[in-house]
Amino acid sequence: MRIVLCYPVEQRHLDLIAAVAPDAEIVDAGQERIAAELPSADIFCGHAKVPVPWDEVVDEGRLQWIQSSAAGLDHCLTPSVIGSEIIVTSASGLFADQVAEQTLALLLGLLRGLPVFFRAAQKREFIRRPTGDLHGKTIGIVGLGGNGRRLVEVLAPFRTRILATDYFPVNKPAGVEELWPADQLHHLLPLVDVLILCVPLNGQTRGMIGAEELELMRPGSLLINVARGPVVLETDLVDALEDGRLAGAGLDVTEVEPLAETSRLWDMPQVIITPHVGAQSARRYDDATNFFCQNLQRFRAGDSLLNLVDKKLGFPARLQE
């Protein structure tokens, strides 16, 4: 068995994997060697951020299982992989705590006027200005996977009213007032003060928030995107912010990354931008390795895998506990 890794690992991570699969060859390919090493892998764990010859990998017929070290799977779900027998599992929900913290940072930063106060501080201006409140707001969460459900738990103590949509509108959390199918997005939009995007990137979600959707949102509402950048059409978002339809946006992701230096978003005082760091954590790679080892034990034993992905949907049909 040849296990190829492509995420930042240290010796302790390699030792943990070796303890589960002592007979396996473990290759720490990194981004530099992943394209060359992947065609001869039986198992791949990681997230290739460089071009990978997925068609060649599929044609080779050796790769059995992809364990993504990220929740998003657009990096590996190519048509050839989707049509193959390769098993895919994700890290859905593994970094839900961190995504929830990032969402709170963006949301509270906007509501409490931090971009304005930061700019004033740079000018040494000590001027009181109006701020907003999170308590009492109506929040719309689009996507109730692991990240969305953790957000419900975090936001509920702020005495917010939470509405949501999801591809699988089942098992409604206690903190959610209404849970609708994904096709009810347009019903949700006019009802919320804050819209939080937690969906994966696939054919159905790419460009799902554009001019029509932004026009349906309440005047003065906020948009928070901790999903994937291409879910929101940047040009339409800029227009909605400039004409005052939206009061602000918190963006951990952008349609094109890195965000172009010429983007109008950079200069907007009602926008907070962070460089796709929502899932970052001091223990991220420890958690990713522990999860991989747990699934590796299951794989070797022939048991069902955690976070098994429906490759046509692009995410796990059900998050296992």
TrEMBL record:
Domain D-isomer specific 2-hydroxyacid dehydrogenase NAD-binding: residue ranges: 104-278
Pfam families: 2-Hacid_dh_C
Database matches in SUPFAM superfamilies: Formate/glycerate dehydrogenase catalytic domain-like, NAD(P)-binding Rossmann-fold domains
CDD domains associated with the record: 2-Hacid_dh_1
Name of the featured protein: Glycerate dehydrogenase
Annotated EC: 1.1.1.29
Record keywords: NAD, Oxidoreductase
Record-level Gene Ontology MF annotations: hydroxypyruvate reductase (NADH) activity; NAD binding
InterPro entries per UniProt: D-isomer_DH_NAD-bd (IPR006140), NAD(P)-bd_dom_sf (IPR036291)
